[in-house]
């Protein structure tokens, strides 16, 4: 036994390794579960009790030597690989981090919010899953109004039961109702959000899109306040000199109601594909909040009046960036999105 130990002691002392595999072989040979040291400890069990003291000591020292040498060589090998064996060239320039870009709808939404914030409007939000009351009834939709038809609205069934009165909101006007029900006038808010309609998806229609609703309720609010507010908004968004015109229209929740056109942002009114050669493009619906709606929300319609408006964000973005296919907004094609690279502050 002593002979074997002497022989291996010089081998261990002389051991060096150029590669990790050599070190691993050393570990297996001496320190492994079937290695020499394990074997020597097995033999040690058979040594007579007189010899046990001396041999025990020799054996332990031998084991410590092997372990220490293993650690030493491992350390040397580690720093050698880092310095010379690595194929990483630290002098190469790193990969640049690509800066993301904002979605065109976010750009438009933020711009709209900015403009109205400067006029003292706050931002409000409401749920996308709505009940009949907030989406239709409180907004003065008659019971048999075609907009409640299955064609337009995604109704939600409760379990196996019959179709309930829960639906995906078809417009952000529902947020007006929630706001007025839960507060006291004056109200001055814009409400951006996603809305849903039961439409086949094509370049010109989608089953979801985005709207921004506006509401201003106070004493003595008039139609001229509505016109001036929206006129200012358009000058800010599309530039000074953009013309506006109001056409009479109908919405159940406003009386009188109007649709607002602006002079075409692409051809400046001279006629193009975008404005179908009319020089005008429609951007929103608006009107004076119907007294029935105010009363439905617990607001005294003798004391308060208000105006409201609603616009499609995709339309606003289209007139800014000429995005002709609605599907592009939701497909997340990076080639499309990258075109809206903005400075990140
Ligand atoms: N909710 C209407 C729609 O989805 C848009 C609208 C029109 C909103 C007139 C209004 C409004 O607040 O006054 O088509």
Automatic annotation (TrEMBL):
BP GO annotations: phenylalanyl-tRNA aminoacylation
EC number in record: 6.1.1.20
Catalytic activity annotation: tRNA(Phe) + L-phenylalanine + ATP = L-phenylalanyl-tRNA(Phe) + AMP + diphosphate + H(+)
Quaternary structure and interacting proteins, as annotated: Tetramer of two alpha and two beta subunits.
Cofactor binding note from Swiss-Prot or TrEMBL: Binds 2 magnesium ions per tetramer.
Subcellular location, record wording: Cytoplasm
Organism the protein comes from: Mucilaginibacter pedocola
InterPro entries per the UniProt record, alphabetical: aa-tRNA-synth_II (IPR006195), aa-tRNA-synth_II/BPL/LPL (IPR045864), Phe-tRNA-synth_IIc_asu (IPR004529), Phe-tRNA_ligase_II_N (IPR004188), Phe_tRNA_ligase_alpha1_bac (IPR022911), Phenylalanyl-tRNA_Synthase (IPR002319), tRNA-bd_arm (IPR010978)
GO molecular-function term, one example from the UniProt record: ATP binding
Domain Aminoacyl-transfer RNA synthetases class-II family profile intervals: 108-319
Protein name: Phenylalanine--tRNA ligase alpha subunit
Family: Belongs to the class-II aminoacyl-tRNA synthetase family. Phe-tRNA synthetase alpha subunit type 1 subfamily.
Top enzyme class: ligase
Entry annotated with the keyword Ribosomal protein: no
Cofactor(s) it depends on: Mg(2+)
Matching Pfam families: Phe_tRNA-synt_N, tRNA-synt_2d
Binding annotation for Mg(2+): 255
PROSITE patterns: AA_TRNA_LIGASE_II (PS50862)
